[in-house]
Structure formats: C-alpha cells, structure tokens
Specification:
29% of the residues lie in helices and 25% in strands. It is built from 5 helices and 16 strands. By secondary structure, the chain is α+β, with helices and mostly antiparallel strands. The relative contact order is 0.20. Helix 1 crosses helix 2 (41-53). It starts with 10 loop residues before the first helix and ends with a strand. Strand 7 (173-175) and strand 8 form a beta hairpin. Bound molecules: magnesium ion (MG) (2 copies).
Length: 271
C-alpha cells in the first residue's frame, strides 16, 4: 500500500479533504442512528451508500477499491477491520466497527467508529474507551518536527504498555489525499524520534486497532476480513488529520456520530 512519495497539501486541498471527511462523519452518524439489533450489515451498507450519493458528485471511497465490494467495512467483535457487510443480524452484545471512505471533489476522506450495543461487558467497553483515547494520544503527536514513530509510540505506550491490550502490527494508518492510501504508513506502534519527519501540510489517517487479547491476527478466506487469532474482540477508531504549524487539525469528527449514539436507545456511549 502506502509506498512512494509524500504529497504535502495546500490549505485549499486540505479544505477539500475536510469536506470529504465531514461527509464520512455524517455517514457514520447516519449509521449510528439506524443501528439496532436485527438490522444487518447489508442494510446499513445500502443506507450509507445512498446517504453518500445524495451529495452531488460524492461516491463511496472503498467500493471497487482493489475490488472491495461495499461502501463500508463492517467489522464485528473478533473482526479487526475490512469486514464485508453480510446478512447476519446484529445482536445486543455486538461491537461493530464501521469504517467509511468518501471520494468527493477529487479527494478522499476516511474515518471509523466502533459502536457498542447495550449488552456488551464492562471489559469490552473499557477496550473501546482505551482504543478511542489512544487515537487522540496519537493525534496529539502529529505536530511539525515530530516523526511518524512518535505517533505510534504514544498509541502503543497507552494501549499496550499501560493497559495490556494487543496492538495490531499488520495494518496501519496512512497518508491520504487524491489517493485513499498514500505515503507515509502510520503504524500504531513505534519508537520515539524514528521514521518520516512530520511537516505542515501532511494529511494522514490515524487508526489504532486494539485487541482485547493477542495482537496476532489472521485473514479469512474471503481475502479481506482480518480477525483476531484468539477470537477476542478488537476496537478501531480513525480520524483523518492535517499536520499544521499550530498543531493537528482533525478533519473528520466523531461529534455527529456520538450525538446519534446518545439518541439511540440500543447503543452504549463510549466515553
Ligand atoms: Mg478507514
Ligand atoms: Mg484508513
């Protein structure tokens, strides 16, 4: 995936990426408003695709990307990422990572949120809270002069060292812009002061994937679905951000999705 040169973005380009990211964020909120036990991933996916296409010129960013068949990656419970929407109804003990990409005005936006139904255990709720918090620890390191390794280090220190969870190694965050995946790769683990230097204008997606148990993952026979080897749950939150002189500018937002979760009687808030 993310190999090759790094494209730093102008302020105008960053604003276009923000528009794509805001549409992703609103799509995730729409998902959060319709999720309930009994609904299927295929139903959610169809709703999300329509929601995106209702915005003139906007198209789903994942559908057709390396032949991925859907608008959303829907990754339930032990599925880490890249789950293909299916016809299995959600239940009240599921956690559901929904990853969404949009291509609009020649730029991609990318964000993800893991939803929790009301019946999940406190142990899994804590996993999600820590995963989400680790995302913001990583974002805080995305300042000019720091390096990519500082982002991964902050995420790993918090989720793995402090809380004992498993950080997935095989999948990483990425640069984003006119391409869904650009350089540099942004691992969720790393060493302070190592890797590509961060400069103003760099736009990256940061997306910790944090497992309750082992960090080890496997790929299913469908060629997409990544799941934990021990079948324990995995959390995933993602933002697209721009590195700017005055600090990280988060181009996507979880504000709408969290408002939708608050108003959905079947879902638990992760705070
Ligand atoms: Mg994503
Ligand atoms: Mg991504």
């Amino acid at each position: 995936m993310a190999k090759g040169m790094i494209y730093h973005k102008t302020d105008e380009e960053i604003e276009l990426i923000r528009q794509s990211c805001l549409l992703v964020s609103k799509t995730l909120a729409h998902v959060g408003s319709i999720l309930k036990p009994g609904v299927t991933g295929l139903q959610i996916d169809a709703e999300a695709e329509q929601f995106i296409r209702d915005h003139e010129g906007a198209i789903p960013g994942f559908k057709g990307y390396h032949d991925f068949p859907a608008t959303l990656c829907i990754s339930k419970n032990e599925v880490v990422v890249h789950g293909i929407p299916n016809d299995v109804p959600f239940t009240e003990t599921d956690i559901v990572s929904v990853d969404c990409g949009v291509y609009w005005n020649e730029f991609y936006g990318d964000a993800a949120y893991t939803f929790a139904f009301n019946g999940i255990s406190d142990q899994v709720k804590k996993l999600l809270k820590v995963t989400k918090e680790s995302l913001y620890k990583g974002i805080a390191q995305a300042v000019p002069g720091n390096r990519v390794g500082d982002i991964g280090y902050a995420i790993q220190e918090f989720a793995e060292k402090e809380h004992g969870y498993g950080i997935v190694r095989e999948l990483v965050g990425h640069g984003i812009g006119r391409n869904l995946h650009e350089s540099p790769e942004v691992p969720n683990y790393g060493s302070k002061g190592r890797g590509t230097k961060l400069q103003s204008g760099l736009v990256i997606a940061i997306e910790p994937m944090v497992n309750l148990g082992t960090k080890r993952v496997a790929q299913s026979d469908d060629g997409w679905t990544i799941l934990t080897q021990d079948k324990k749950q995995s959390g995933h939150y993602e933002h697209t951000i721009a590195v700017k002189e005055d600090g990280p500018d988060i181009l996507s937002t979880h504000e709408y999705v969290e408002e939708a979760v608050k108003n959905n009687e079947y879902l638990s808030e992760i705070e």
